């Protein structure tokens, strides 16, 4: 593994929970950090060591420089972390483009698939910023845990292994351990699809279907992830790792997960408006279409999309899943 690179200037795009936590992690890894938030009040709060809207009750070290000016955020940066929601990536990058220093890596930290096009986020970066190498950071990591300095492990993937190792070394610190990978697509897919399965697992809990059903849902969801991964050319081992199995374990069982709690509300029949960001919602419908396009069987993903679209109830989805034709377990 590469040694720690010299001090760097990291730009973080996004003043939400994850942007704040990653900015703090970069600061603790010894780097100079400038965070861009579109909201001036949020930027000022983060500079003061708090983010009451997205990380309530957590106070953290000051030292993160903040700005509402993208040009200022990107000036002199030698690495950019992109941490706004997946569905806003294309518009954010459009604004970033004129100010983006060429050649420096852009690390995607959002988890999702573009709803309108089915594009993986890395391909949007390549399309809009062809002169910047893309990397993906993913894995089981609640922002609140990272912001509190609790031990966490993630994976950073880039096509260029040396870049992945360099970034992993750059962001690793006492309580954040970054593994490296050259499987960008596998790491992206694991992060994007686990959100859909977290909604499914939450719905099982909300509808009080039992712990056995929850375990079955997560396990069979993992099969769908492996099938889609194979169709997209992901390495199977990647999906067994932090950004696949690891993040499924975390978000399909914890009420700290917004996708899981969204599913719980769905299963209880509670109102869904005004809830915190749940990336699995837009990703479910497009992942259903991608699965169909690739001839991949994905009944749980399609069921989540159909429930979210109001086409079927949670009860009807369970009935449909339980009465599918029987098959050999290892059919991928
Ligand atoms: N919160 C967490 O524990 C983790 C989140 N992630 C991923 O990170 C991404 C961001 O999530 P969070 O920070 O948690 O969300 P959040 O809801 O806490 O914050 C989102 C931030 O993005 C900003 N934003 C939204 N649209 C924007 C736009 N068009 N232009 C500029 N800023 C915009 C919002 O103002 C807000 O500051 C998501 O894809 C999520 O899946 C990944 C790992 C952990
Ligand atoms: O991705 C996450 C943890 O790895 C955060 O999950 P939620 O977006 O469901 O809160």
From TrEMBL:
Location(s) in or outside the cell: Cytoplasm
- Active site per the UniProt annotation: 194
Q: Which residues bind NADPH?
A: 18, 38, 54, 111, 143, 258, 277, 279
Q: Where does sn-glycerol 3-phosphate bind?
A: 111, 139, 141, 194, 247, 257-259
Q: Please give the Pfam families that the UniProt record associates with this protein.
A: NAD_Gly3P_dh_C, NAD_Gly3P_dh_N
Q: Which UniProt keywords apply?
A: Cytoplasm, Lipid biosynthesis, Lipid metabolism, NAD, NADP, Nucleotide-binding, Oxidoreductase, Phospholipid biosynthesis, Phospholipid metabolism
Q: Which PROSITE patterns does this UniProt record tie to the protein?
A: NAD_G3PDH
The residues covered by the Glycerol-3-phosphate dehydrogenase NAD-dependent N-terminal domain are: 11-163
Cite the EC number.
1.1.1.94
Q: Please give the family membership noted in the entry.
A: Belongs to the NAD-dependent glycerol-3-phosphate dehydrogenase family.
**Name this protein carries in UniProt:** Glycerol-3-phosphate dehydrogenase [NAD(P)+]
* Biological source species: Aquamicrobium ahrensii
């Amino acid at each position: 593994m590469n040694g720690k690179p010299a001090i760097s200037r990291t730009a973080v795009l996004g003043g939400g929970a994850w942007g704040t936590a990653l900015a703090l992690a970069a600061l603790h890894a010894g780097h100079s950090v400038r965070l861009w938030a579109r909201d001036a009040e949020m930027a000022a709060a983060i500079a003061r060591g708090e983010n009451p809207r997205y990380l309530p009750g957590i106070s953290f070290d000051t030292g993160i420089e903040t700005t509402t000016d993208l040009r200022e955020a990107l000036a002199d940066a030698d690495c950019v972390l992109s941490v706004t929601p997946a569905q806003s990536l294309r518009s954010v990058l459009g604004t970033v483009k004129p100010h983006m220093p060429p050649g420096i890596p852009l690390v995607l930290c959002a988890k999702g698939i573009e709803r309108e096009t089915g594009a993986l986020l890395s391909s949007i970066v390549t399309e809009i910023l062809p002169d910047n190498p893309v990397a993906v950071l993913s894995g089981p990591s609640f922002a609140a845990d990272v912001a509190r300095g609790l031990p966490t492990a993630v994976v950073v993937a880039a096509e260029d292994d040396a870049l992945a190792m360099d970034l992993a070394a750059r962001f690793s610190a006492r309580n954040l351990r970054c593994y490296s990978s050259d499987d960008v697509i596998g790491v992206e897919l694991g992060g994007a699809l686990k959100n859909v399965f977290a909604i499914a697992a939450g719905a099982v809990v909300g509808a009080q279907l039992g712990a056995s059903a929850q375990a079955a849902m997560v396990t069979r969801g993992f099969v769908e992830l492996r099938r889609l991964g194979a169709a997209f050319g992901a390495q199977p081992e990647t999906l067994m790792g932090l950004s696949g199995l690891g993040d499924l374990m975390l978000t399909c069982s914890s009420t700290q997960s917004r996708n899981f709690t969204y599913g719980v509300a769905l299963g209880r029949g509670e109102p869904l408006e005004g809830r915190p960001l749940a990336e699995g919602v837009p990703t479910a419908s497009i992942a259903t279409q991608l699965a169909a396009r690739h001839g991949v069987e994905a009944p749980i993903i399609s069921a989540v999309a159909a429930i979210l679209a109001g086409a079927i109830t949670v009860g009807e989805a369970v009935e449909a899943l339980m009465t599918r034709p029987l098959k050999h377990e290892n059919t991928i």
